[in-house]
Amino acid sequence: MLERIFPDPAVLSASALEHELLAPPPERGRAGTPWVSFNFISSIDGAASVEGRSGQLGNAWDQRIFSLLRQSADVIVVGAQTIRSEGYGGELLSKTAQKWREENWLSAHPPLAIVSGTLNLDAGLEVFQKAPVRPLILTLESAPEERREALSEVAEVITVGTDSLDVALVISELAARGFTQLHSEGGPTLLGTFAAAGKVDELCLTISPMLVGGSAGRIASGRAVEPSTVAAGMTLTRIMKADSMLFLRYVRPTVG
Question: Which of 228, 209, 211, 207 is nearest to 219 (CA)?
Answer without folding.
Answer: 207
